[in-house]
Queue: 4 jobs
Job 1
Amino acid sequence: MKIESLDKLFVDELKDIYSAESQLIRALPKMAKAATSPMLREAFESHLEETKIQKERLDQIGEQLGQRLTGKKCVAMEGLIEEGKEILEADGLPSLIDAALIAAAQRVEHYEISAYGTARALAQHLGHADAVKLLDTTIHEEGAADHKLTKIAESDVYPGVRTEQEEAENAPKSSNGRAKKGAKKRASKK
């Protein structure tokens, strides 16, 4: 890749973010399905809708610049989503899986906040006032999503971990010393 100007760098940043949002749109439904906390599931579902709107904003910016934002793959988001897939395949107490999903989602949010912040700074410097407004809106939404995940973790998921661990410890054991099948699921439904 040859970086020839701030204008080209700005478009390249937007393409990277566009790819990131496209990947996230495919990943969020899987995260929502895996979440056992109703609050967390709702947060993922609502952020999916928000992400679709954010991608539409990027399309608007691309139109203003006369640029298509497709054609680049965001390798960073690909890696973050791959880490999330590992969590989806993990075995553990449901509340611990939820805690891990929150950690993965917050890494994604922080990446997006950083990427949008960089794009916003470039837009500001290059005099793209409309793009600055659209990017500011998205930065605010990403920060709010991160804050919401923290609240869900602290008020719902983390307290549930202790309860599930205690219930799993007190569950009837099989001959190999493990909790009998279904004990984990029963603990998560309380």
Job 2
Amino acid sequence: MALDSPNTGIVDWRIVALTYGKDFQEAGGTVLTNFEASDIKVAAESPAGSAE
């Protein structure tokens, strides 16, 4: 018996994450690894002037 799922695919999430990181760095961002986050604040909306 086979599973037919024409609208889904297999995704290599490691490659997706690396690509997002590369795009972020090319836009001027810094990616930190092996870094403990101790205080995270979630913004209610995007900063003024952002693309979203």
Job 3
Amino acid sequence: MIDKLAHDYMGVDVYPWHTPEETRVTFLIEPVRVVTSG
């Protein structure tokens, strides 16, 4: 995921500051309720 974001926003194929010691977690947040006005 981080490599895709780096490609989209930085124009590089691999995120340049990734180290093997890092653990990256992706959370998918689903809304329970949406309130709008206007």
Job 4
Amino acid sequence: MLFGLYHSPVGPTAESLLGKIVKAIERLRRTGLTIDLGARDKIQTFDVHVQLIVGDFPARSKFNSLSGHAGYFACSRCLINGVRCKAHQHILYTWLEYRTKCPVEHTNENMNISFDLIETSRKTIRPNGAIVKSPLCSILSIQKQSVFDYFHTCLKVHLPVLISKWVKLLSKVDLNKADIYLSGILYPHSFNRHPKKLSMFDQWKASQMRTFFLYVSLPLLIHLGKCLPSAVAAHFSLFYI
């Protein structure tokens, strides 16, 4: 079921993107969704509940109306400030900062306080990373129901970390063995991008990571045999499942 489609050379605001959709969902939550099932006297009304919204980092920043992942207070779960990297001029969120500062949970209460500050301020401010009140606030909890997408979180964040550890554990001979194995795989014509060399994994796109993860990773571990510690293979199989 398609609720909306946006096409424009200019990026939308959260209100222009989701405002009418949220109002339609609110109406469906009140009245239910009535469907004609095609048979005689088979008109049925279904209750409508909002479970979650999912998107990559730029999309989550857009529809949540919070700072992007490159800005301060980018986390929607807690109030961690972030530290500016002087070398690359972006914001880092380190485990050391999280462990030492123990940031408080990002709640609806402190979000509402931030929205009140924005409305009463004469200047453009972003308290706790809030830009403006998102339309989504009326139908879900941004902290609990705005979730990270699997595609980028697993394939562009977690999986490269695992592969980097594999590469460090493999000898040059074993790494070359893995490269030859990957280069020799024949893929269906529908696979546009192929993971060719494990030694060049840092240049793979997310689609290549997905192909590697879903179709190649476990056969490769079996092919490498004892080149990697058994604990590494066992832990990865749990992530794979």
